[in-house]
Amino acid sequence: MSNKNTIQYRQVGDYLIPNLILPPEEANITLGKRGMLHKDYLLKNNKVLFTTLLTQGKLYQHCAEVENQAREMFDTLVEQMKEAEGVTEGLKERNQLEWVCRMQNIETRAREIVTTKLIYI
Q1: 52-65: b or e for each residue (b if 16 or more CB lie within 10 Å)?
Q2: Rg of the chain (C-alpha set)
Q3: DSSP H helices in 2-121
Q4: What whole-number distance in Å separates Cα of residue 12 and Cα of residue 47?
Q5: Which among 57, 65, 55 has a CA at the least distance from the CA of 35?
Q6: Please, are residues 92 and 99 in contact by the beta-carbon 8 Å criterion?
Q7: What are phi and psi of 20, to 5 degrees?
């Protein structure tokens, strides 16, 4: 009978370090910029949640979900702001420079909202 809960260790200098392996569903997750920002925020500002998610093997899954929510929120905000401010394809055809400036402004504001509402919480 093998015990799956047996922890194996490796010696590093004077210390024994556990050989920890991510669960398969965690090992295959690649985080983008927003997911990594959220992970770093948790590590620095919410160590209890970070440690809990890490020990449960759900940290990367959680950060990937936050990243997906952030992407969706960003896209929705950009579209809503474009519509509210009249930034259209017609403007793009008439005055590309103004369109680019206004789009950059919209994207910057949307990124700031997403960052404060989802990433750094």
Answers
A1: ebbeebebbebbbe
A2: 21
A3: 24-27, 33-45, 47-56, 59-85, 89-94, 96-114
A4: 25
A5: 65
A6: yes
A7: -95, 140
State the Cα–Cα distance between residues 91 and 43, nearest whole angstrom. Answer: 44
Backbone angles phi, psi at 8, to 5 degrees: -100, 145
User: Residue 17 has which token pair?
Assistant: 């370090």
Residues 37 and 119: beta-carbon distance below 8 Å: yes
Look at residue 25 and give its three-state secondary structure: helix
Residue range 74-118, pLDDT digits in tens? 999 999 999 999 999 999 999 999 999 999 999 999 999 999 999
Residue 74 CB contacts under 8 Å (≥ 6 apart), including other chains? 110, 111, 114
